[in-house]
Structures are given as C-alpha cells and as structure tokens.
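Most newcomers find our protein records easier to grasp once they have seen one. Sequence and backbone structure share a record, each on its own labelled line. To make this concrete, we reproduce a full record directly below:
***
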Amino acid sequence: MNETLVTLVGNAATAVEFRETANGGMARFRFAVTPRRWDRVKEAWADGHTSFYTVWAWRTLAANLTGSVAVGEPLVVHGRLKVREEELEGQRRTFVDIEAVAVGHDLTRGTAAFRRVVRGEPGLTSRYGPAPVAAGPDPWAVPEAPEERAGGGGGEEVGEGGAEPGGAGGSAVERPAGRRRTGRQKSGGAPEKTGSDLVTA
C-alpha cells in the first residue's frame, strides 16, 4: 500500500550489471528519460532536460534483463518509485530509483522478437533453491502387473487380468480384464459368481 507506481519511457544509459546475492539474482542499470516538446519558434521538436534513474530488478527479471538489454536501446519501465538521500564527500545527494516490475522494448522505435526462457535448473531463479531429485527408479515408469497368487489373501486387491482367490479347493478363478473389486467385496470376501462372470476355456 501507499506505493508510487510509475511507467517511464526512455533509453538504457548504461549496460546492465548483474550479480548473484543470497536472495537471488540482482541487476541494475541507468535509465535516461528525455521529454520532447514542440518548439513553436523553430517549428520543430526539441529535447527537454534529461532525467536519470537507477533501475533495479531481482531474480527472473534480473536474469532476463542481462541477456536482453544493451546500451542505447529504447525501453518501457514499469515499477515502484523510490527516492533516497545519501551523503557523499560531504555533500547531500538525492537518488531516484525504480524497483522494476516489468521491462520491455519500446516498439514505437523498432521491432523485437520474444524468446521464452526455459531454465535447466530451477534454482537459478527460485527463492528456495533447486527441487530435490528422488533417488531410485524412474518415477514415470509404468509399474509391472502383480504376480498371481493361489489361495488366501482375501484382503488384497487384484489388478486387471489377475486371479482372485475364493474358488473351490483354493484354486484361482479367472477375472475378466477391466473389472475391479469394490469396497464391499474387499471386506466381505469374494462375491458369488454367476454364469456370465466365468470365463470358459
């Protein structure tokens, strides 16, 4: 709340400086904004006073700025306006910063081609570091079908095309593929088979 959001149109005055910090990547560059006014006397457009800002960016935006912005390129910067004062060499100086939320090229001055960035390592832009990799077999591998068991084990679920205990003399009764046991069948044992449920040789 109570933040001053501004949108500036200008040019990159310096190259983007990038470095890694404990909170992720950080980038900054100087941004020049020069207004243009119509001079009625000369009947021509004239440049006004140039204002300079320091643009700061973090994490993903900071990394993308490094590979996208060069000196002199026209940009549109949207972010939070910050004004700070510091004493340098005995003099009180005022600095105006922009904490960037979004940065893009000014397409009224030229064209640009967007390239989506695919990160090979999420920890490069993630606040919490790279995701842990589970050891062992491939989690996307298809599990093998369970082995058939004869007799007993009335509480175990049988996969598709497997055998269900409960036949005469402990022999397995073939179950058609695609049928699964319900919760009532698990707790109460095998249901009574009808003639349509049996598979004949």
